[in-house]
Design goal:
The complex is a heterodimer of chains A (about 375) and B (about 110). Chain A has about 375 residues and is mostly helical. Chain A has 18 helices and 2 strands. Chain A starts with a helix and ends with a helix. Helix content of chain B is about 25%, strand content about 35%. In chain B, the strands form 2 sheets. Chain B has a 4-stranded antiparallel beta sheet with strand order 2-5-1-6. A two-stranded antiparallel sheet of chain B has the order 3-4. Chain B starts with a strand and ends with a strand. The chains are: A mainly alpha (about 375), B alpha+beta (about 110). At the A-B interface, loops of A face α2 and β6 of B.
Amino acid sequence: MLASLVGFFGDFDLAEEAAQEAFAVAAERWPRDGVPANPGAWLTVTARNRAIDRIRRERTLAEKAWQREVPEVTMDEFDDTVIEDERLELIFTCCHPALALEAQVALTLRALGGLTTEEIARAFLVSEEAMKRRLSRAKAKIRATGIPFAVPAEHLLPDRMDAVLAVVYLIYNEGYSNPPTRIDLAGEAIRLGRVLAALMPDEPEVHGLLALMQIHHARRKARFSGDELVLLEDQDRSLWDVEEIAAGRTALERALALRGRGPYVLQAAIASLQADERIDWHEVAALYGRLAQITHSPVVELNRAVAVAQAGSTEQALEIVDGLDLDDYQYLHSTRGELLRRLGRTAEARAAYERALELASSEPERRFLERRIAEL
Amino acid sequence: MKYAMLINVEPGYIEALAEDEQKAVFAEYMALGEDPRARGGAELQPIETATTVRVQDGQTLTTDGPFADTKEVFVGFYVFEADNLDEAIELAARIPAARLGGAIEVRPLVER
C-alpha cells in the first residue's frame, strides 16, 4: 500500500503520514461499521484522499508548484493488483544510483523491509537522529532531482538490477559483520529476496541471490561453537536448517532452469555443493574458476585455490595463492598458513598465520588463528 | 524539470585528440546544443582567462585564476529540460567530456 502511495505522490513522507492516518481512521470506524469488502483498497483510497486534502491545504499556505492535478479517487477505480506491481517501482527508486549507497540501504529497509527508523539505526550502529537525517536527505533528493518512480527502461535494467541485488546482498552481509542485535538483518534480506523473486520471476540472478542467502543462512547455527569459529568441514550438520537449504536449492533450480550463469547463481551453486554430505571439490573449483572469469576478483581466485587444495592438489593451490596480489587481506595469509602446514613447511606456516593475526578484525578470528599457531 | 550540466574536465582534453576526432567531438557538442530539450548553455574561455572576485567589508578583492585550484576545471555547461533524472543522466552521458576523463555534475535548477 505504501508503494502505491509513494508512486502516486512521489513523496515518501506524505505517503507515510497518509497511510498512518488511514489506519487510524480504520481502527476507529471498522469496529463500528464492519470491515470493508476490500480492506486494502479502502485503506489506500482513504490514504490518498487524506493526502490530497493535505496537499490542498498546504497549497493555499505556501507556494509550491505541483506538477499535476491530483483528482479525488473513488473506490471503483481501484484495482488491488496495482498495490503489488508498484513495489517493483519502489525498489528501483530506493536503489537509484544517484543516491548514496548507505541511503539506498536505509530507504530499502524502511520502505520495503518495514523496519522502523530506530530499528535501522540500531542495526547500523548509528543514532536514531543520524538515521532520520539520512532518510530525510535521501527522500528530499528523490523529490528535488526528479528520480522517477518507475521500473527502469530496458537498456538501463541490467545495471539497475545489479544495484538492487547489491543492496539486498549488502543488507544480508551486514547481518553477519556486526555483533548480533535484536534486528535480524540477514532475515530481512532474505525476505526482500523473496519479494524480488516474486516480482521478477524471470530473472535468474534474482533467484540466484535468494538461493545463495538461504543456503548460507541455513548454516548460521553451526558457524560458532560458543564464541569460537567453526570451519565448514568441522560444522555440526545437525544444526543446519534443512528446510532453508531445500528452499535455497529450489530457488537455485529455478535460476538454472532460466539458464542463469551469472555471479549470484554461481555462488549459490557453490554453496549448494558445499551443503552436500561429500563435497565435490573439483566441481566447486570449476565454478570458482567461472566466477573468477566474470568478476576478475583475486578473492574469488583465493577461494578457488582452497577448493583445489580440498580436491587434493595442495601444491597447485599454493601456486595460485602466491600469484595473488592481496597482501592486506587476512584470509590470504591464513589460507597460505594452512596450505604450508599441510605441506609440512611449519616455519613458513607460522609466519603466514602471524601475518593473518596482525590483520585479523574480530575476536573469534583472532582466537582461531592463535589456536592454529599453537597447534603447529 | 530543468537540469544544469556542469562540465568539469582537465584542460587540453580535446587538443589531445587526433584532428578528425577533435572535429567529431565539436560536432557532438553542437548537436547537444541543438537538441530540442536544450534550454541554454555556454562554453567558457580557458582557465587562464579566469578572475575571481570577492567582496569583504565593502572592498572588492580580485585575484588571478579560477575559484578552485583543481586538476579538472569548470569549462562550460548546458541546461536541459528533461522529464526525470534518468533522462537527464542519459543526456549528461552524451557530453563528450564525460568519456574523456571529465565529470558532469547534474543538478536541477530552482524553479520559481
